[in-house]
Amino acid sequence: MEPVETIEELPVVELPVARPKPPHPCQIIFKGTDPSEAARVEVRAWLDRLGALTTPMIGGQVVIEAVDEGRREDRRYHVRMELTMPEGVVSVGPDHPSNGPHEDVYVAIRNAFRAARRQLESSILAHPVGAAMPQPPEPAAETIDLPQSLNATIIPSAGT
């Protein structure tokens, strides 16, 4: 191998560029408690964990709420959310059976996202992406005998 004389003679190697993932279009709101970056990170991690289920998400709102206005040690947390998907809104609120208040904010976040995941999965099973929606049958064409210069096909409108 010959020694390289100048830098211009070195081969150019392009390395893959790590592109940051776009943030989820989800608003995180705290009520009755101080905002916590750790809780925000946990919500974003759950959105990432849901992966393909939340990829088509158009928008959303996650509300982390302190249910009991007492001392920090006695406080219970509730998480409710609305995730706006192309097919509709996935909503997990306080009335959801597996989303009760909890002493640990991270457990409350986990429970809410598990409930959302079940709803998203059942929604996908009911309406798979790319599945053709049933279309109404085309109306049958009707041919009428007219003089040759006016021969035409008449297609009845859907209302008839």
In short:
By secondary structure, the chain is an alpha+beta fold. 22% of the residues lie in helices and 21% in strands. It has helices spanning 37-49, 105-126, and strands at residues 26-31, 59-66, 77-85, 88-92, 142-144, 152-154.
Radius of gyration: 28 Å
- Please tell me what the overall shape is: flat
Mean pLDDT: 74
> Which percent bin holds the helix content?
10-25%
Residues in β-strands, percent: 15-25%
CATH topology of one domain: Double Stranded RNA Binding Domain
CATH-level-2 architecture of one domain: 2-Layer Sandwich
Widest sheet: strand order? 1-2-3-4
Structural class given helices, strands, pairing? alpha+beta
> What's the CATH C level of one domain?
Alpha Beta
Q: What's the number of helices? A: 2
Number of strands: 6
What is the CATH H-level superfamily of one domain?
Answer: Ribosome hibernation promotion factor-like
Distance between the termini: 83 Å
Taking pLDDT < 50 over at least 5 consecutive residues as the criterion, the unreliable ranges are 132-136
Helix and strand succession? EHEEEHEE
Descriptive report:
- Helix content is 22%, strand content 21%.
- The chain is α+β, with helices and mostly antiparallel strands and 160 residues long.
- The protein has a domain at 26-126: Ribosome hibernation promotion factor-like (Double Stranded RNA Binding Domain), CATH 3.30.160.
- The strands form 2 sheets. A 4-stranded mixed β-sheet has the order 1-2-3-4, with helices on one face. A two-stranded antiparallel sheet has the order 5-6.
- Helix 1 (37-49) links the parallel strand 1 (26-31) and strand 2 (59-66).
- Helix 1 packs parallel to helix 2.
- The radius of gyration is 28 Å and the shape is flat.
- The termini are far apart.
- Residues 132-136 have low confidence and may be disordered.
